[in-house]
Amino acid sequence: MFNKIIFYFKISTTFLRKYTIISDQLVQWEEARVICNANHHGLASISNENEQQALEESVAASGVASDLWIGGFRLIADPTWKWARTGGNISWTRWAPLQPDGNGLCMQLTYSYLWDDDSCIDFKPFICNV
Ligand SMILES: [Ca+2]
């Protein structure tokens, strides 16, 4: 039902991370989270430079030239960003310049692979951890 594109990237001899990009389904952030939890291992989370690099490579290889939902979010009364997949606070970050600027509570990966807060009700393709 989805056009799933799965990429595998070996980042080092001890590190392997896989991401799935579902590129033909445009959904709001919450729906992306639910789909990723049901079918994979959560909406994509990025914990360090290696994972960011793997994500960038998988998006580049997919040919998807669009903003994409990833798994960061915050609550309206709390400035702390968390990963939906784990519930943990986000420490390592790769925000775009001048972001987060407060225009939304959900995190997108921009077409230049940087992080940006955005309105959760926008419709975008998304990336799951697998
Ligand atoms: Ca923003």
UniProtKB/TrEMBL annotation:
Alphabetized UniProt keyword annotations: Disulfide bond
Domain C-type lectin intervals: 19-129
Protein name stated in the entry: C-type lectin domain-containing protein
Record-linked SUPFAM superfamilies: C-type lectin-like
Family matches, as CDD domains: CLECT
Gene3D superfamilies: Mannose-Binding Protein A, subunit A (3.10.100.10)
PANTHER family: C-TYPE LECTIN DOMAIN FAMILY 20 MEMBER A-RELATED (PTHR45784), C-TYPE LECTIN DOMAIN FAMILY 4 MEMBER K-LIKE-RELATED (PTHR45784:SF3)
Lipid metabolism as UniProt keyword: no
SMART domains: CLECT
Record keyword Transcription present: no
